Automatic annotation (TrEMBL):
Protein's UniProt name: Molecular chaperone
Subcellular location field: Periplasm
Signal peptide extent: 1-20
KW Transmembrane (keyword) present: no
Keywords recorded for this protein, A-Z: Chaperone, Fimbrium biogenesis, Immunoglobulin domain, Periplasm, Signal
Domain Pili assembly chaperone N-terminal, first and last residues per copy: 22-137
The keyword Signal is annotated on this UniProt entry: yes
Pfam entry (one): PapD_N
Family label: Belongs to the periplasmic pilus chaperone family.
Domain of life: Bacteria
Domain Pili assembly chaperone C-terminal: 159-219
First-listed, main subcellular location of the protein, grouped into a coarse class: periplasm
Native species: Tatumella terrea
C-alpha cells in the first residue's frame, strides 16, 4: 500500500494566494505607539478547519527571545469560511523611540489530517512585515520617501535614507514608458543601500521609482533628482 505524502511548502506571502487556505487581509501591519495593540485580520477560505501557528522574528529573522512584543494567540483554530484576528501587543519598553522597529510575522498553516490515502496537502508558511512606529517621529512615510538621496557611481546606485522610517522601494524605472525596470529593496532608517545597475546604464539627473505605501499598495515618484 502506498504511503500518504504530505507536502509542506514554505512560500513567501507574495506567492501564496493560489495555495493558502488562510487569506490575509493586509500585506503589512503598522503598529502606532499610541495604540494599545495592532491587529491582522484573517479568513479561512477553504472548506476545512485549519490550525494556525503564529510567531515573530527580529529584522534579521533571528531568535525571538529578545522581542518585547507578543502575538496573541500564538496558536488558533479557524473553522472553514470563518474569520479571525491576530493581535500584537508591545511590552512598553525595549524599542527605540527615535525610529521605527521592524519584525517579521510568521504564519504557519496546520492542515487537517487527510481523509484519503495518497493525498497531497500543502501547509503554507506566510511571512509579512510588522512596523512599530513611535508617535514622536512626527513624520509620514510619504514625506520620508521624498527625502531620499540618490547617487550613481559607475554601475552602482546608492540610496541614502536619512530618516527614521523603513522605506520599501519597489522598482526603479530605467526608461520612461518602457518595461525596463530594476527591482529594488528596503532601506532601513539612517542607512543606505547599494543596487547594481546593468552595464553602461546612465541614470541621468532624475529617477522615477515606486515604493510600498502603508496600505500595501505601490506609490509612484517621478523625476526625482539624483545628486
Amino acid at each position: 500500500m502506498m504511503k500518504k505524502f504530505i507536502f509542506f511548502a514554505l512560500i513567501q506571502l507574495f506567492s501564496v494566494s493560489s495555495f493558502a487556505a488562510i487569506q490575509l487581509e493586509a500585506t503589512r501591519v503598522i503598529y502606532n505607539s499610541d495604540s494599545s495593540s495592532a491587529s491582522l485580520s484573517l479568513k479561512n477560505e477553504s472548506d476545512q478547519n485549519y490550525m494556525l501557528q503564529s510567531w515573530l522574528e527580529n529584522e534579521d529573522r533571528s531568535s525571538t527571545a529578545t522581542i518585547p512584543m507578543q502575538v496573541i494567540p500564538p496558536i488558533m483554530r479557524i473553522d472553514a469560511g470563518k474569520e479571525a484576528t491576530l493581535r500584537f501587543i508591545y511590552a512598553g519598553h525595549g524599542l527605540p523611540a527615535d525610529r521605527e522597529s521592524l519584525f517579521w510575522i510568521n504564519l504557519q498553516e496546520i492542515p487537517p489530517a487527510a481523509k484519503e490515502a495518497n493525498t497531497l496537502q500543502i501547509a503554507v508558511h506566510s511571512r509579512l512585515k510588522l512596523f512599530y512606529r513611535p508617535q514622536g517621529l512626527n513624520t509620514t512615510l510619504d514625506k520620508e520617501v521624498l527625502k531620499l538621496v540618490w547617487k550613481q557611481t559607475g554601475n552602482k546606485l546608492v540610496v541614502t535614507n536619512k530618516g527614521p522610517m523603513y522605506i520599501s522601494l519597489n522598482r526603479l524605472h530605467l526608461k520612461k514608458g518602457s518595461a525596463q525596470d530594476i527591482y529594488l529593496d528596503m532601506v532601513s532608517p539612517f542607512s543606505d543601500r547599494t543596487f547594481t545597475l546593468p552595464a553602461n546604464t546612465q541614470i541621468g539627473s532624475t529617477v522615477s521609482f515606486s515604493y510600498v505605501n502603508d496600505f500595501g499598495g505601490t506609490s509612484e515618484v517621478n523625476d526625482f533628482p539624483v545628486k
